[in-house]
Amino acid sequence: MSSLNKSNTGSTDNTDSHSGSGCLNKLDRDQVQSSLAQIIRSLIPRNCSRYQYRFCELLPQPNVLGFCSDPQPFTGKVVFLNEVFILVKRSQTRNQFVIVDVAYVDVMPKLNDQVEITPYARHDFNGRRVDEPEKEIQTLPDGTQYTVTKMMLGGKSITLPLPISKEQLQSPELLALIEQLENIPAPDGFRLISHLLVDAGTTDFTINDAGTLNTDTPPGIGFTVSNQKFKGKVAIVYDRGSDTYSLRLYPATDNQPTEVDNIYFDELGLRLAEAIDDFAWQVIRVKTL
């Protein structure tokens, strides 16, 4: 691809610490907790000696089992807010509160507003949440059928929407690339690369299934991206000689295509984020009811 501008480094350096940036803002939990008791004291009934709270941040923290679950939307009343966090008293509770990170809210509510908060959650290519329950119909030996509902909490990988099934692939290198895209973590540590691709709005996946005997045409995978960061075609191509990947970017505009070479498999998430992640997923949605 002699027409491509080549580089062996990423082309974007995101250093902002606000919503929509590549550098994730970390809420100072110690600072929040130090002031929480005094704030909540006047917000609970006198005969209520205890209160409960949890944090609503862009990326959830691991639970006691060591994995992160995608947070669910919730409703409540804004009972306190400042430049750091919003304190929401959950609907139909006396002493349950949620601390919402201000850095990632799309709309700043007002005190006493009734709100619905929708945190970021990972999704599949079909638009469904990764933890959305799935129903399967099982059949007993006597022919009786029953429905089983399954839900996967935390760390669920998703399948790339390829034009053919993995079982039909001839190239082991292409199969390895697909499995890496589906299972390697994205730079943020919560998502996988496949979730990054969903959030970037990738569609129209194609493959180049060069078999083991075809050394002239390298195996690779392509897709279309259309977001604020990049619009055009993207290809990830395997180089058998160096055992690395090349990331080829073909903008929909008249701009010259570019190529990022010598990408090792554990760098795929970082290089893809630098090239196509517009960080529009970094938002906690606030709706006033």
From TrEMBL:
Ranges for region Disordered: 1-24
Protein name as annotated: GTPase
Polar residues bias spans: 1-22
